[in-house]
Design a protein that fits this description.
Strand 17 and strand 18 form a beta hairpin. With about 300 residues, the protein is of the alpha+beta class. Helices cover about 30% and strands about 30% of the residues.
């Protein structure tokens, strides 16, 4: 199997360990071509080279953002050509999407196994999201705004260094929501935006939580999109209008994979939806990366052949 390895030097593990990229090359055992991509333009060029080379498996070394950017570049390059099998070798702060695939091995172990003859512990087809904004298209797995965007703003401002930091923010928000303190309101307060689902506008003008995903566990065992992956052509969308006092205390239901309680929201599979920010570009998140746009369209993307080690 022709295997390509892509290294994102901006991923946390590579920033912390100067010689880790060289270790990746050694782990490939000379059985793969290795690309180090500093920017998205270099990633696009690498994906085109992989298509011309005939890559059958691509190992993306990084986190969820690396996976999203890598898949987006591959979909752009492999037009009318079967996409290669995807493997993620974890090197970011978290690896939420690969964990949902069943990925267990670490960075160098994954590279060695993926470039060798070892059989993956799991292989399957996995759905994606196609997100369109400002004449751009990205392929990802977890879309969110409202508390999702505000959570990641807090997370990166605090250092963005993994699950421990994320758990602290989540716990502080949960405790504070019972009294609607300033911190919990800064994350859970409804954000002004409108949502149109399958061509039908939802009635509310403000939403505290908007999340659509093709994976069930959004991290920290948060199963908000408890029906994700049920239908590969219809992502699960959850949109809530609840205020901090009513939304925060529902965290135990989320941990159990149960729907949120409360009227005025949406919790179902859909063909596609559009989020609009009437006051100008608003914050939204795709696989942990923060973007800004006035209008974002989300629908099912291509299915991927993925492998986990």
């Amino acid at each position: 199997m022709k295997t390509a390895v892509v290294v994102n030097p901006h991923a946390r593990a590579f920033r912390l360990q100067e010689k880790l990229a060289s270790a990746v090359r050694l782990s490939s055992g000379g059985r793969a071509r290795v690309w180090l991509t500093q920017h998205e333009s270099e990633l696009d060029a690498a994906a085109e080279e992989m298509r011309l080379w005939g890559a059958e498996r691509v190992v993306l070394c990084g986190g969820d953002g690396t996976l999203m950017s890598g898949v987006t570049a591959l979909v752009r390059a492999f037009v009318n050509t079967p996409l290669p099998q995807l493997v993620v070798a974890p090197a970011g702060t978290v690896a939420t999407v690969p964990r949902n695939w069943g990925q267990r091995a670490g960075l160098l172990d994954t590279v060695a196994r993926a470039c060798g003859a070892e059989r993956p512990r799991r292989q399957c087809l996995w759905p994606t999201l196609r997100v369109v904004y400002d004449d751009q298209t990205r392929i990802g797995f977890i879309f969110g705004t409202g508390l999702v965007a505000r959570f990641f703003e807090k997370y990166y401002a605090a250092g963005g260094d993994g699950y421990r930091r994320a758990a602290r923010i989540a716990a502080r928000t949960f405790v504070g929501s019972f009294v609607a303190d300033r911190y919990s309101r800064s994350i859970l307060e409804p954000l002004r935006c409108t949502i149109t689902v399958d061509g039908h506008p939802l009635p509310a003008a403000r939403y505290s939580l908007v999340v659509s995903s093709v994976v069930r566990d959004l991290g920290l065992h948060m199963w908000v999109t408890h029906r994700a992956g049920e239908d590969p052509r219809r992502p699960h969308l959850v949109a809530s209008t609840l205020n901090p006092r009513r939304l925060g205390p529902q965290a135990p239901r989320v941990l159990l994979g149960r729907p949120l309680r409360g009227a005025g929201g949406f919790d179902d599979l859909c063909t596609g939806f559009v989020v609009q920010f009437p006051e100008g570009p608003g914050p939204w998140v795709l696989d942990g990366d923060i973007f800004f746009a006035s209008e974002i369209g989300v629908q099912a993307g291509p299915q991927l052949h993925v492998a986990a080690f």
